[in-house]
Amino acid sequence: MNFFPSRTLSVYMARMFLIRVFSVVALLVVVLMSLDLLGQSGKIFAYPGNGEAELWTYTSLRLPQIFAFALPFSVLLGTLITLATLNQNSEVVSMKAGGLSAHQILAPLILASMGVAIVSFLFNEIVVAPATARLSAWEKVEFGPIPEASNVRSRVWVRDGNNLINARTVIGNGRSVLLKDITVYNRSESGLSSVIQADEGRYGGDIWTLSTVTRFDVASGTEQKLETLEIGGNLTPDQFTLSDVSADALSFPELRSAIQQLKEAGRPTAKLEASLWHKLSGPLSVVLMPLLGAVAAFGLARSGQLFLRAVIGMALGFTYFVADNFALAMGNIGAYPPFLAAWAPFLLFFLIGETVLVRTEE
Fold this sequence. Notes:
Helices cover 58% and strands 17% of the residues. By secondary structure, the protein is α+β, with helices and mostly antiparallel strands. It has 2 domains: 7-142 and 270-361, no CATH class; 162-233, Sandwich (lipopolysaccharide transport protein A fold), CATH 2.60.450.10. Helix 1 (7-46) runs parallel beside helix 4 (102-140), helix 2 (52-88) packs antiparallel against helix 4 (102-140) and helix 9 (306-332) runs antiparallel to helix 10.
């Protein structure tokens, strides 16, 4: 009736599993980070004044993303290596001879993977999301000086009727939002009528006030200097602050708050809701890996089918990642409901893994 084997055996298997998982993730992170630096170092050094310090800054911001990306694959490969080793050394045969079921053999690995899932979720919330936000802001300024404020958005485009407004920097939220380096393209039915450039823009409750303004009239070709100018009576601050919400750059509470603000503004949120649920289902996917890779643990190693079983386990795991990305893409375009897009692959492959394990080993 005990789901877990003996304490000694459980610790032995969990430790073997975790060592292999983090060994694989370390290898993948080194390889992927090196390849990424080869592709991005030229862009970083292209900005005048950038050097080795900026390269290390990029590495510190990109490394958490690569670690989060590689972890689920590493759990799958670590599972296959662990189970294939146990099978090769006839340890699985010994466990089954001692009266353990297939589920009891996998139980220590599943428990350890739950711990990895919790660590993955906390790491994504505390480290990955802020690093992604900062790296995104840095890339938008072409690896120039990184904006210091945490609530800074770069190169935001907003449409006001026929007119287009570009703010190079948006700082703050709500009515206290500040726009910097603003360009307003006033368009008529016949084409561009004027271009307005301003240093700053502030929201006054029902109107935007631009300061240090230069206005160029296209028809006459004349330029006019103004201290202030009022524009955009229909524009609201959320059009700037919520125009480009990145789910990867926000933690779970921040993303949920942004979704609520978008709903109140009457904006579509299906894509972000799918990403919100995926912040939970994504880290939890590592719990599936011992189940999907379980085929590598059973069957006689001397039958010559151990390699084939490992390939089947790997195929099941990678098929899950393909299905997960496909479902999330369907959720982003509105073809799937957000909850279904995030959780359907997890539930489907849980049933597939259980079916394979019960039909073959139980």
